[in-house]
Amino acid sequence: MQQYDLYGIGAALLDTEIEVSDRDLQTLGVDKGVMTLVDDARQQQLVADLRDHLVTAKRACGGSAANTVIAASYFGLRTFYSCKVAADDNGDFYRADLASAGVAYPAALQRADGGTTGKCLVLITPDAERSMNTYLGISEQLSVAELDLEALRASRWAYIEGYQVSSSSGRAAAIALRKQAEQCGVKTALSLSDPAMVHLFRDGLQEMIGAGVDLLFCNRDEALAFTGTESVDAAAAALRDYCRSFAITLGGDGALLWDGERQHRVNAPKVHAIDTNGAGDMFAGAFLYGLNREQPFSEAGELACRAAAQVVSQYGPRLRAEQHAELLTPA
Question: Among residues 92, 115, 175, 318, which is most buried (max CB within 10 A)?
Fold first, then answer.
């Protein structure tokens, strides 16, 4: 019996967003528009250097896959999330935030280990671009021990965060999850997550994908980098060797979808973007909601584009709970 619609695996990070200028990024030595792994000392240095800047988002549990699973939960799916937190205040907050969003998690998450819960400092420039500086903390130790195979077997979809490729134990857990899902007939979805992950760990991502996932999420830059092509159309053709369906997000230009038989192009609503953090995560959560509700690919893609457009028009990677219901009944 299927108890969950979506099982996710990924990092558990506490997000903090700060508005900065491009000059600030240059002064701080921060690479723009990508996720950079940093140690705790570097992250604390950045926070100290930016202490006079305006913090624009409240503390919230994050991590790419967590944002996707939480969005799917608020849309109405039954969700489960495997991650790793430490026995600290941030870990307590993270578990409570998951629970408040209706996301189930392994019983082992209640028995947190020593160490530090992961943190992500998100720097937002005036062009709405996000530059992430992530201290994984204990999330770097995410492993097969955090998997709940009983919950996985009772799920319709398994969602894998591509960021796990940067950790040897996390990559092993993602591969084990994908293999187990395939064995028990659970559909698999994977996000390439970030251009930097593709450039640095392409072989590892290929190993996580295996013979091919049911659904691959990526943005334009990730698609081009992963396939080694120079156009979206060429990337779309090449991606069919790695998955049975895909969604390539194109920012304000919408998305390009492949349902296994036909290609679809969906448009995005025109909005004033102020913060692109979480746009891809929200797209994936809304899209998986649509597929779970048996929507056609194009209809699920239209919902996902509306949801992503709503996210980029406000600060923070997540929407308020009531905004999800509003997106399901657009004017």
Answer: 318
